[in-house]
Amino acid sequence: MAIIAISLGSNFDGGTFSTLSGPSVSPTTGRLLIVSVVTKIAATNPNIPTLSGNGLTWTQVATLLLTGDQRVRTTVFRAL
Q1: Measuring CA to CA, which residue among 63, 65, 60 is closest to residue 75?
Q2: What is the pTM of this model?
Q3: Of the candidates 3, 53, 51, which has an alpha carbon nearest to the alpha carbon of residue 23?
Q4: Which pLDDT tens digit goes with each residue over 49-74?
Q5: Torsion sign over Cα 39, 70, 45, 12
Q6: For labelling alongside 16, which of 1, 41, 57, 71 has CA 20 to 30 A away?
Q7: What are phi and psi of 5, to 5 degrees?
Q8: Residue 34 is inside which H or E element, if any?
């Protein structure tokens, strides 16, 4: 079983965004795809993101919120 990691992009300019697009990915039929989304905001809790694209149904697996000086949320999605 091969594991391939692809960075779909990032936004570190301190601004807000509602959509983040990355490079084209052609998933292979019957393969498990896992995506991790990390959001960071200084003053408030980051929203739980949603994921769509490639004609796949993305299911949220887990989300974790870390608080402190910065509030960081990591959310994991999967699709088959």
Answers
A1: 63
A2: 0.75
A3: 53
A4: 888 888 888 899 999 998 887 888 88
A5: negative
A6: 57
A7: -110, 130
A8: strand 33-41
Q: Alpha-carbon distance 75 to 70, whole Å?
A: 16
b/e burial code for range 19-48 (CB count within 10 A of at least 16 → b): eeeeeeeeeeeeeebebebebeeeeeebee
- Is the Cβ–Cβ distance between 18 and 31 less than 8 Å? no
Which single residue is written with the structure tokens 């990390």? 38
Handedness of CA 23, 38, 46, 10 (dihedral sign): negative
Mean pLDDT: which of 1-5, 7-11, 67-71, 73-77 is highest?
Answer: 73-77
